[in-house]
Amino acid sequence: MPDRFVRVALFAALGLLAAFVAQPYLTALLFSADEPRAVTPRGDLAPAEASTVALFERAAPSVVHVFARNRNRASARFDPYSGEEQSQGGGEQTGTGFVWDAAGHVVTNNHVIQGGTEIAVRLSTGEVVPATLVGTAPNYDLAVLRLGRTTKPPPPIAIGTSGDLKVGQFAYAIGNPFGLDHTLTTGVISALQRRLPTAEGRELSGVIQTDAAINPGNSGGPLLDSAGRVIGVNTAIFSPSGASAGIGFAVPVDVVNRVVPELIRTGRTPSPGIGIVAAREEATARLGIDGVVVVRVVPGSPAAAAGLRGVDPQTGELGDVIVGVNGQPVSRLADLTRAVEAAGLGQQVQLQVERDGRIRVLPLTTADLGTNRR
Q1: Is 272-368 a domain of CATH 1.20.58.220?
Q2: For the segment 276-301, what is each residue's pLDDT rounded down to a tens digit?
Q3: Which residues contact 181 (CB under 8 A, 6 or more apart)?
Q4: Catalytic-labelled residue, pool 111, 211, 244, 320
Q5: Is 87 annotated in the active site?
Q6: Could you name the CATH architecture of 44-269?
């Protein structure tokens, strides 16, 4: 009896072992899907997904890929945050733009096309079209191009306003990061009223901050609201690595909507100024001076008419230091340019100037000191 029990137990164990070993082979034989699987019906997109898809389909045909080539030299792009030029080897710079009107004007960043002798635009259809430069506004990092003859002109993009934006509302960026056409990234408006350094010691105020991923190649592309309207022009990222770190900046569309028509009409935008060459902030700081050191006064300018004095070229003795405008303190050139721009063209301002250890008040009238950018 015990022997029989042992034999039965042994056979049972062997059967279980055989079943265990054979199980993967039997499963593969009986259940392998060696024909195309049936598609499971998905159902409707979620409302948020459907809204985003519709937004992209409406806006994408108006977004273009911009190429600027300088055959004479390798190009470089200035990073206003690091203070360094970033090489764009081969003499070609690329970025994004969007169609502004039915006449084929395209808005992009000035730094995208700066120094380019040949400019071309690739449309959403894949067609490559030559473009001409209409005008630039370096102080706002904006430029306007005009498309050449196209097979089918792309539609103008919808324009919104940046005056009523709220932190936390959805934001969408369409561009060509790293040369990848028509990439959509999403996020929110992270902050408002940021300041962005631009050319010639100026700062652009009221800048939009977003966490929608913005990378090299997105520059000049539109930042959209949930209605698919342009609310800003993507222009810079703050990133130690050079890639998106969730902090991107866009020129507010209300500024764009003011500057672009001026560029289309005249190729330039009025630039109110007083006509001085200021010392570099690093030099001013080393001297322990709080204000704008006047190095040179432009002949025939409002500053010259008001009697401002620059550094003595013979002795190197300091001249005037601008410490205030209209009663507001001035510590650096960005403060001065912001105050002059706020006053506007042809307006009188009162400069508080330190000269020979005393504060003097010099009235002068601002003038358009911009140069033609055509």
Answers
A1: no
A2: 888 887 888 888 889 999 998 988 88
A3: 65, 122, 124
A4: 111
A5: no
A6: Beta Barrel (2.40)
